[in-house]
Amino acid sequence: MGGGRRGDAPAGVGRARSDRIRAVWEMVVDPAVRGRGLGRMVCAFVLAEARGRHGRAALMVDEWNHAAVRMYEALGMVYRPVKAAAWRSGR
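^ that's the sequence the OP posted. Answer follows.
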C-alpha cells in the first residue's frame, strides 16, 4: 500500500519479491471497516500461500501493536522478540 490507502480498497498489503525472499509489509485496514475480520482474512490467506509455496512463513510486528500481535498469535504465529536497527531522524 506504500504509506496509505489507495482507491476504494478497505484492506491491502505492500509486497516485495526477490530470488530468495518474499516480503509483505504494511498490512492496512481502513479504520471505517476495522473489526470485521478483513485483516485476519487477508493475513491468513497470505500466510497460507507462503507456507504452501515455501514451507514456512514469518512476519514482523511492532511490539506496541497489541491488536496485531493478538491476531497473528490467533493465526498460529509465535511471538519472538527480535532486535532491529534503524536510522534516527535528524542524523
